[in-house]
Write a structure and sequence with these properties.
- The complex is a heterodimer of chains A (about 260) and B (about 240).
- Chain A has one domain.
- Chain A is built from twelve helices and no strands.
- Chain A has helices at about 5-15, 20-40, 45-70, 75-80, 85-115, 120, 125-150, 155-185, 190-200, 200-215, 220-230, 235-260.
- Chain B is of the alpha/beta class.
- Chain B has one domain (about 1-70, about 80-235): P-loop containing nucleotide triphosphate hydrolases (Rossmann fold), CATH 3.40.50.
- Chain B is about 35% helix and about 25% strand.
- Chain B has helices spanning about 40-50, 90-100, 110-115, 130-140, 160-175, 185-195, 210-220, 225-235; strands at about 1-10, 15-25, 30-35, 55-60, 65, 75-80, 150, 180-185, 195-200, 205-210.
- The longest helix of chain B is centred in the C-terminal third of the chain and has 16 residues, at about 160-175.
- The two termini of chain B are about 35 Å apart.
- In chain B, about 45% of the residues are buried.
- The chains are: A mainly alpha (about 260), B alpha/beta (about 240).
- At the A-B interface, helix 1 and helix 4 of A face helix 2 of B.
């Protein structure tokens, strides 16, 4: 990491740490996981509910904050671009300067609560650790997607709208379309296409990874068995990890390219 | 110091610059004037490397700037809008600017004192008044002893005392052989400050020369009238 990246990250992190929205975001996860650990009945149920909350909230908040942040930093970005700084370095600084505080806030909120309830987590420890990894990875994915959107659309409202549209698409519409597909092609063996479709949506990939760490995968029937066999082995875990990494790398590369080429 | 040759830029179908040649000299204050949409902002952004021209050359000290950001270590830029990360302090902002430079030249903190900013340095930028933020903005441009100052509407939002101080500082920099580029909507201010005027109209330079030449050519006694005359003449 060059000194430019390090310094931009350092000051962006300082700015974020003192902001109200980051405290609210941390507090939200702390309260949500505390509530679920206390009242869900069992640690396993708490982790399943927490998974639903995380897969719902992390992409939405990250997309909205990511676009708003980049639009808000427009003048500051121009000021920094007028310094002897390479665009790639500044992009890396801005991206890490938002992603790191968001990841820390998520890990802090959920993690503190997990530590407090560590003894009762017991069999769900593996699933809880997976939840932390998936939440952090999804933060990196959706911050990058938010940057791509904000860099390609100069209109703030339009950018925010596209961000929410992407969230709706990946959170709800995608699953609906998959269900319709399953119903239409019910007479065919669908396990392998389903497996492929899971990789095409980072939120679904996170969900499948988590469910397979819990005993509820029995509820997924024959498809669940195929998934269990695939993701249960080292190859499946490796493939899922690489897929999440690709989901981070692709929008980061796309964003860096837009950032390097665009006129400010 | 910095010059452009046959610089063009279009945004979609809108030709903003259509072959612009300017030559900004050392020890002179150059005002860039023109009606809204004439290409002033685009020209400044290209000089700073924020925007890239479609064709033509920008050369700093005789060397074409070709994606190499190092020439910008010799430029001090004061943007028109003073908008910074809200929770940082002015001291942190200056430290950040210093830290992204490989070899920052001696800190020129005289403006901090002259603007009376010392007590404001450790407050979050969000609580500072608009005028104070504009002072912080001005300080940034002068901080690293740059050879070229680019000041976009520098006195907008400053009180008369601060505005006068800033103008004194600009004259002092000129006396030390620095090149200064200023844009402003207030012609009286440019007349007071500038040696040279670059008049942009619809993406071309329709006048470049000294303030007196412009007044002589248009037979007007002040810059505002001279610019107005020029505008009417060119449009007609």
């Amino acid at each position: 990491m060059t000194h430019v990246v390090r310094n931009v990250v350092e000051y962006q992190v300082r700015d974020a740490v003192r902001s109200r929205w980051l405290a609210i975001y941390t507090g939200f996860f702390l309260v949500a996981s505390e509530g679920l650990f206390r009242y869900a009945g069992s640690a396993e149920k708490a982790v399943v509910s927490l998974m639903t909350v995380v897969l719902f909230v992390v992409p939405l908040v990250t997309l909205v904050l990511g676009t708003v942040y980049l639009y808000g930093a427009r003048e500051f970005t121009e000021l920094l671009l007028a310094q002897p700084v390479r665009r790639g370095q500044l992009f890396a600084g801005l991206y890490l300067g938002l992603t790191l505080p968001l990841v820390a806030a998520f890990l802090g909120g959920v993690g503190i609560s997990g530590l407090l309830h560590f003894p009762e987590l017991d069999a769900a420890r593996g699933a809880f650790a997976t939840l932390l990894v998936v939440g952090a990875a999804l933060t990196a994915v959706f911050t990058a997607i938010a940057f791509v959107i904000a860099l390609r659309s100069d209109d703030r409202l339009r950018g925010l709208g596209i961000g929410i549209g992407v969230w709706l698409l990946l959170s709800f519409v995608y699953d609906g379309l998959v269900l319709i597909g399953v119903a239409v092609f019910a007479d065919y063996p669908l396990e392998r296409p389903m497996l492929a479709l899971t990789f095409a949506n980072p939120i679904d990939l996170g969900r499948v990874l988590l469910l397979l760490r819990l005993d509820v995968s029995a509820l997924m029937g024959y498809t669940g068995a195929v998934f269990q066999r695939f993701f249960g082995g080292p190859f499946g875990v490796l493939a899922a990890g690489l897929a999440l990494a690709a989901w981070i790398a692709a929008p980061v590369a796309l964003g860096a390219r837009s950032f390097a080429r665009r006129d400010f | 110091m910095i010059r452009t040759c046959a610089l063009t830029k279009r945004f979609g179908t809108n030709e903003v610059l259509r072959g612009v040649d300017v030559d900004i000299g050392r020890g002179r204050v150059t005002g860039i004037v023109g009606p809204n949409g004439a290409g002033k902002t685009t020209l400044i952004k290209i000089l700073l490397g924020l925007t890239r021209g479609d064709s033509g050359v920008v050369a700093f000290d005789g060397v074409a700037i070709d994606g190499d950001p190092s020439y910008r270590s010799r430029i001090g830029y004061m943007p028109q809008i003073a908008k910074f990360p809200e929770n940082l302090t002015a001291r942190e902002l200056f430290a950040l600017l210093r830290s992204v430079r490989e070899h920052p030249r001696g800190d020129d903190e005289t403006l901090i004192d002259r603007f009376g900013l010392r007590e404001q340095l450790d407050k979050p930028l969000r609580v500072l008044s608009g005028g104070t933020r504009q002072k912080v903005n001005a300080v940034m441009a002068f901080l690293f002893d740059p050879d070229l100052l680019v000041l976009d509407e520098p006195t907008a939002g400053l009180d008369p005392a601060a505005s006068a101080l800033l103008k004194d500082e600009i004259r002092a920099e000129r006396a030390r052989g620095k090149a200064v580029i200023v844009t402003s909507h207030v012609m009286a201010e440019l007349e007071e400050l500038c040696d040279d005027i670059v008049f942009l109209l619809e993406g071309v330079v329709c006048f470049a020369g000294t303030v007196d030449e412009l007044k002589g050519r248009t037979r007007q006694v002040n810059l505002e009238r001279a610019v107005a005359t020029m505008m009417i003449r060119e449009v007609a």
